Structure formats: structure tokens, C-alpha cells
Amino acid sequence: MASDERFTFNPKYRTDKFETGLMAIYTKQFEAIRNQPLRMLEIGVGLGGATAFFADYFSHVDTRIFGIDIFLPDLRKRHMHHVESGRIEFIKCDQMDTEKLLHIAEAHGPFDIIIDDGAHRLAETKNCFEHLQPFIKKGGYYIIEDFNAQFMGKEYKGILPYVMGLARKAAAMKMLNYTIHSSFRCSTAIFRSNI
């Protein structure tokens, strides 16, 4: 079995990131760093499946993944070993709670990877990016998922133009580069820090 075959799709991870194609994007993007000690922040953890996947994929024993959400997942039956070992820590936090976001970033950052898979609304996405992006390590990644949610309803209005605006300002924000993936099933903007 090739090293990545077990990560192509595995039903033990309760996440839609396989079906949407995001995990294929991530495993390709992060292949070169997957065995390094990393610090990752995942905003919006849902059932915790993607968080558990990342804990398995990023195999270094010193990798730490912090997941925040307004509702915390119950991993007692699945993946509890990651929580017990300290590789995963879940923290209850609202994306609009700037004070708590900064407290988390100061306590657990800087981060190699931040993935915003939270509310997919403009205010929450903007608040997280503006306050957490400074906590990305040089060469690290800030990722905004599902900006195509704009087409799902008026509560998501503004997210797509905001993400495209960030792409236009990437050089001014000292980003090394950025990649935009957009399809019917998923959308993600990957910004790589240069500072």
C-alpha cells in the first residue's frame, strides 16, 4: 500500500472533506511537511472527523492540533486516543469572540496551518482572518474553506468577494503565494505566509 492510500478515503473519519475533494487537495499540499512537528488550528470541527484525520496524517509525535467550535464533538468512541495523548485539544469558542480567539492563538500558536471551516459567513471569516493570520509561522498556511457558500443563501453574502479581495491583496499582506480551488462540490483558498 502506498503511503497515502489509507488517506484517500476511510469511513472511520466522519467528515465530508473526502467526498468534496478537499482531503485530496490537502494531502497533496501538505505531503512535504506531514512528518514534521506541526501546530494546527481548525476552526469549525463538526463531528471531529477531519481533526482526527489530520492527527493521523500529520504523524510526528509532537504535532498538536487545536480545534475550536461552538459545539464540541464527542470522540469517546472514535479517535479518543488522540485527545488522551494530547495531540488533539478541542476548545469551545465562537468565531466572533475576538478576545478568546486571541487568547487561544497566544496560548497555542504560532501555527503552521489554520483552516477556517467555521460559519462560512463574512463577519466570522473576516474576524478570524484579521485576528489569527498574524499567528501563522513563516511558510505556514491560512486556509478558508467553502467560500462558495455565497450561493447558498443571503446569510453568506459577501464571503466570496472578501476571499477574492484577499487574493488580490496577497502580496501586500506578505503572502508567499495563494491557491484558489473552486468546484461545484468545494471551494478553498490557501494562503501561504512569507513573514
The chain-level mean pLDDT equals 89
The assigned structural class equals alpha/beta
The CATH homologous superfamily name equals Vaccinia Virus protein VP39
CATH class: Alpha Beta
CATH architecture assignment: 3-Layer(aba) Sandwich
Sheet with most strands: strand arrangement? 3-2-1-4-5-7-6
Strand content: 15-25%
The helix fraction, in percent, is 25-40%
Which word captures the global form?
globular
Largest sheet: 7 strands, mixed
Note the total helix count. 7
**Overall structural domain count:** 1
Low-confidence sequence ranges: 1-7
The third-level CATH topology is Rossmann fold
Our measurement of the CA-to-CA distance between the termini, rounded to an integer number of angstroms, reads 38 Å
Order of helices and strands: HHEHEHEHEHEHEE
